[in-house]
Amino acid sequence: MIINCAGVHYKELNEKINEAIENGAKEIILEKVNGQRYIGAGLNKEVKIKINGVAGNDLGAFMNGPKIIVDSNAQDIIGNTMNNGEIIINGSVGDITGYGMRGGKIYIKENAGYRVGIHLKAYKNLLPVIIVGGAAGDFFGEYMAGGILFVLGLNTEKKIIGNYIGTGMHGGIIYIRGTIEKYQLGKEVGFADFDENDKNNFDKYLKEYCTIFNFDYAQIIKEKFTKLIPVSHRPYGKIYAY
């Protein structure tokens, strides 16, 4: 099913998407999207949504199963509290990507803004994964409680990542392609050695990412990666009552 989104208010557009799914649509193509918000929010069906244009804030928020493919860029807070599914961005995204995300995957071909993966979680058998192909801003992985983050620094003139990486982090893993300085880290995170589990993460997620965007996986992993993990699972324990 094809929906022309030109001049359509986001509320009306999302009503049309929900109606199409209720009528049995398995693939929906959205043409001329121009910043409409909440596309895919709260959807609980295995449906594919292709977005031609720029997706607005809260793309895929709270969703549980759909696959969303954006042909260019997306704005802020994509994957907000996402439970499961997949979001593929063939461009760049704004700030706060994956806020509170509990499961699923967000694959970004180009750059991301600030606070990627803030409050990223893992829940029971769910594992959230975000891969940024280009550069990312400050506070990458802030307050991260679980899941996996990658930033690759591909095809960008920007500094691969900003400062305050992993501030407040108390779970999960961050992989950064290349070397970073200790001053860039939040005090709650530290460098770690690689093990067999990391190889599995690379083979499963990074290889899939490279296949989707037609990147050379073998070439990408030739460069050294930095692995970051939290130094404490309760970094602010002294300020809690219990």
What does the secondary structure layout of this molecule look like, with pairings?
Elements: E1 2-4, H1 10-22, E2 27-34, E3 48-54, E4 64-70, E5 84-89, E6 104-108, E7 128-132, E8 145-151, E9 171-177, E10 189-192, H2 196-213, H3 217-220, E11 225-230
Parallel strand pairs: 1-2, 2-3, 3-4, 4-5, 5-6, 6-7, 7-8, 8-9
Antiparallel strand pairs: 9-11, 10-11
Radius of gyration: 18 Å
Strand order, main sheet: write it out. Answer: 1-2-3-4-5-6-7-8-9-11-10
Which percent range describes the beta-strand content? 25-35%
Poorly predicted tracts of residues:
none
Quick one: how many beta strands? Answer: 11
Query: CATH topology of the domain at 92-237, anyone?
Result: Pectate Lyase C-like
Q: In oligomeric terms, what are we looking at?
A: single chain
Helix content: 10-25%
Feature tags:
242 residues, alpha/beta, 11-stranded mixed sheet, Pectate Lyase C-like, 3 helices, globular, single chain
